[in-house]
Amino acid sequence: MERNLKNVLVISFGFLLLFTAYGGLQSLQSSLNSEEGLGVASLSVLYAALIISSMFLPPFLIEKLGCKWTIACSMCCYIAFFLGNFYSSWYTLIPTSVILGLGGAPLWSAKCTYLTIAGNSYAQKAGKIGRDIINQYFGVFFLIFQSSGVWGNLISSLVLGQSPQQVEISEEDLKCCGAYDCITAAANNTTAFKKPEMTLVYTMLGIYTGSGVLAVLLIVTFLDQIKANEVESEKETMKKESPLSLVLATFRLLKDKRQCFLIPLTMWSGFEQGFLAGDYTKSYVTCSLGIHFVGYVMICFAATNSLCSMLFGKISQFTGRKVLFSFGTLINLSCIIALLLWKPHPSQFAVFFIFPALWGMADAIWQTQTNALYGVLFEKNKEAAFANYRLWESLGFVIAFGYSTFLQVYIKLYVLLSVLVMSMVGYGIVEYMESKESPRPPTPVSKEITGAPAQETPLWSVPAACIVYGGNYHSKNAPVCECKSSRGRGSKGCTMAEDHNTKDTLKPLVFRLHDSVPKMVREVLMERGWSEFDKRQQDKSDWNLYWRNTPFHVTDHRNIKPWQRLNHYPETVKITRKDYLARNLKRMKGIYGSALYEFSPVAFIMPNDYVKFIAEYSKERQSQGRKSSYWICKPVNLSRGRGILIFQDIKDLIYDYVVIVQKYISNPLLISGYKWDLRLYVCVTSFCPLTIYTYEEGLVRFATEKFDLSSLDNVYAHLTNTSINKFGPSYKKDKVGIGRGCKWTFSKCRSYLRSIGVDDLLLWQRINNIVTLTLLAITPSVPLTHNCFELFGFDILIDDKFKPWLLEVNCSPALHLDCSIDATVKKGLLHDVIELLNYKQIDTLRQSKGVRTKASCASNHRLNALSLLLYNLSWKLQEDHLVKRP
Ligand code: ADP
């Protein structure tokens, strides 16, 4: 048998043995140790110890002992409690209850941790998804464990039913049963409360203790230790859940009003279970039928409870939770009222079973629906939410068992009634608050945490300047940059993430968006199963990706965590602002020669370069006689074609802010008489070493009126911005040769180019060269920052000699969707960008895995000059081959 599955079975049967014993004994506590309410007091103490233990002990013990020995030792705490019952007194039961309470939390935590590690380990070996295997393991565990409620109670009823002289309960004594029981002392003196024969009690305790010992032996003998590397990774998890941070997160969640309103409902769960186990068993069953019936009655509860849990889980999908909560309330309300009125009598034998059956049904609703409610409401903060759940539920138990001795049953029933009403009011308010909130986009459950409906074939190609080891991408060696890490979907490629041990968890990746980010980004991330950061509920380090349209603050870069990514590098404005780009490309031209950096039209920054511009303008006029070049004047700080002016005569040049005056490409390559340019998407995942991906699909943006140099002020003929053309009179018209709208995809453009005999691959190569040379202009000056990436939009215009020109570089290329072509291109693009970021499952943990260090890049920068020489050579070679005219 597969080793991991064997371990799952060992744990499951170990728990079955232990909880068969514990479950049976818990149901009997109130009846078996009824003197001065010792039994219920011990249960109350037990749950209080459990609350404290769950806050502090599990991480510490698991780290020190490992999962196997934590499970074994915690089980011994249960055995101590069983032994304490042999000589039940305040001095034995209370301390052993504390011991059990302390052991309870580490036991469950260690079990969960073990199953998770085993599931991940198997998934890794078998190449399956960790979460699926973990779910299967938990399924097996609960399937086996569930039945413990039946066996323990069956044992108690069978053993205690063996008494040769079954006590006949007198009619007088029966008056003391039910809601108006003759509280504690009186009730305990009745025949029914006479302790069963001690030999039978010892036999039963002996069986329970034996069962507990067997559980420990099973674990010690057959459960494998987790391997050293798995423990290491687990220790990291435990460090994250440091007691203090979890406690703080738990209490921080109380700032959320919804959590506060849910407290009564959560406590109700403890109250109602406490009542059934402590009071119903004692004041109704034991009192009227005898202690040996407690087991049978509780089996009835356990059976309906399990059955209905499964059932309601399914039904809720059709009815919604509100209907089920109402149904649960109705059942409990009717039961409470009936219990207040009912005078239990052995003649109504069946009724003793109807109540636990109904109670089990309602309890199934509370358990499944309240858990689910927490999961949905506090989706982004599940850990703290469930810690709150456990805390308030346990407190409900503590109170219910705590007051059990002092209050008469009818008063407890009124208390239950009030708590139930309060719960429903609180729950109603939460539902109301939820309905008031603006509807949130649905979070589809994705198959894989980082998996996604991504492109079948990645469309990124790596310009020749990057070395990529293996992978699906076009690659070519050159000395400028390198990239060695692995990439998602099994292929190798470039990544910013360090290789962590992957470890699956149920947490989703979290994204954080700045206000102005288009909703498509949210949609795509949601599609990939990510969830959105909620600053009200989450810590500021609790996100994986922060996307904004404007640059980040220095502190954002400084405080970045290993699992986080920012969508901008610092200093990239040096190529994304028109005047800085012009200046930097001019500088590069000065250093590396105009032959290499001649892809950007000559530009002057005004007013600073006014004199130089006049000189150039006059020179041209003189050399060309009366015919002068065309110029385009663009405000440096504006985008979307705003404030642009095209002119030929200097007298038309008017500007009142900083602008660049650039040579206007007056011979663009036209398609059916229309001007067009390319919006090329480029993703840089590292500047050190420089790692660039150019997206092979992109947008071809058309002007919507025919190109005409005699009407320079017609923006629809000269500018290709969609923001302008979508308001043009011909936008919706079917334009000959280009169709409706103003966009094509790259693919369509490529086929067109091929159809007119252009070597589109060579053109693509030249465009890639432009991208690399432009980025090289700023590579040395981008500060060494970790975990950034940047998606640039390069605007490229091709002239009628098939020469590509760089018009500008956009730092946050538009990601909103204007038409179906936008949706095809941009959605695919974004999915692939996220793929490139190479998130690992370890990133979903959002915990520190040590400081990321990077080697100095000085040597890389020194290599730039060398690489540029190589480029120069290849550029020249390509030039002669670019156009194959028909
Ligand atoms: P913005 O980002 O403000 O839109 P761009 O530089 O992208 O500024 O220019 C807008 C449009 O003007 C381009 O899409 C292109 O159609 C046209 N354009 C810009 N510069 C030139 C140029 N030098 N030659 C020809 N057309 C140009």
TrEMBL record:
It is a multi-pass membrane protein. It is found in: Membrane. InterPro entries: Ion_channel_UNC-93 (IPR010291), MFS_trans_sf (IPR036259), TTL/TTLL_fam (IPR004344), UNC-93_regulatory (IPR051951). Signal peptide: none annotated. GO terms for cellular component: membrane. The chain crosses the membrane at residues 39-57, 69-87, 93-117, 137-160, 200-223, 289-312, 324-342, 348-366, 387-407, 413-430. Keywords: Glycoprotein, Membrane, Transmembrane, Transmembrane helix. It holds the Pfam family TTL. Belongs to the unc-93 family. This is Protein unc-93 homolog A. It comes from Alligator mississippiensis (American alligator).
